[in-house]
Design brief:
Length: 238
């Protein structure tokens, strides 16, 4: 029985197309304008849902008080677990193509600010608040400069991490790889699983799958906020 176009779209978004159906799907995209239009519409709807989930999470994250005690990293792990839910929201909408750039686009989600309040510093010395203010407002060129200055002065991991994230948001993927590779992954702090995750994604965007896979495998071997997503992406690649 020949599958109708609506069923074909449903199976695509459920990642269930057979090889024969993939060929049929691509043929419809190339030859049927109404089918291509409906596909684009549904794709945008699913992306909008993911963005809304990100916005909901950001509101929730802003309700957390900045930790002041030595237990702050425990609090960050709790927040990180919540972030992992959002980072995983896009997994169910995956392109059938194994192309690494498309996989990058399917899995990549902007990482929110979980370190500092999103307010401008009251004086020019409050560079940390200023850096996160610019980052939260999408001014990545400015946040990149500020996080770079912080890291040069204090060598704080958060500054190095958000410098790399700013670079990724600016599509400076090769520079982000250089930055992320400066992390000592043996330290295994709250940033470590996310550093591995974003570094793996950056390698995928640069079509260096052989470098991404070991990072993803390491994430699957221990319990961490990105373990489940790494398993899913690794399955796509292998």
């Amino acid at each position: 029985m020949k599958m109708n176009k609506e069923q074909l779209l449903e199976r695509y978004f459920e990642n269930q197309l057979s090889q024969e159906e993939k060929l049929l799907f691509q043929n419809y995209l190339d030859t049927d304008a109404s089918f291509a239009e409906e596909f684009a519409f549904q794709k945008n709807v699913k992306k909008a849902i993911t963005l809304n989930e990100r916005a909901d999470l950001k509101q929730k994250l802003q309700s957390f008080e900045t930790p002041k005690s030595a237990k702050k990293w425990l609090s960050k792990w709790s927040v990180a677990a919540s972030i992992a839910v959002v980072l995983g929201a896009g997994y169910w909408f995956m392109n059938q193509s194994p192309d690494t750039i498309e996989l990058y686009e399917d899995y990549y989600q902007s990482y929110p600010n979980v370190v500092a309040p999103t307010v401008r510093g009251e004086n020019s010395e409050d560079i940390k608040s200023e850096a996160f203010y610019e980052y939260d407002n999408g001014n990545y060129e400015k946040s990149l400069v500020l996080f770079s200055k912080i890291y040069e002065t204090d060598k704080d991991d958060y500054a190095l991490f958000y410098r790399a994230l700013s670079q990724m948001e600016l599509q400076k993927t090769t520079e982000a790889i250089v930055t992320l590779e400066q992390f000592d992954l043996d330290k295994n702090n709250a940033f470590t699983p996310f550093v591995k995750w974003y570094l793996a994604l950056a390698f995928l965007k640069e079509k260096e799958q052989d470098k991404a896979i070991p990072l993803l495998r390491s994430l699957t071997e221990t319990e961490n906020p990105q373990q489940e997503m790494a398993q899913k992406l690794l399955k796509e690649l292998e």
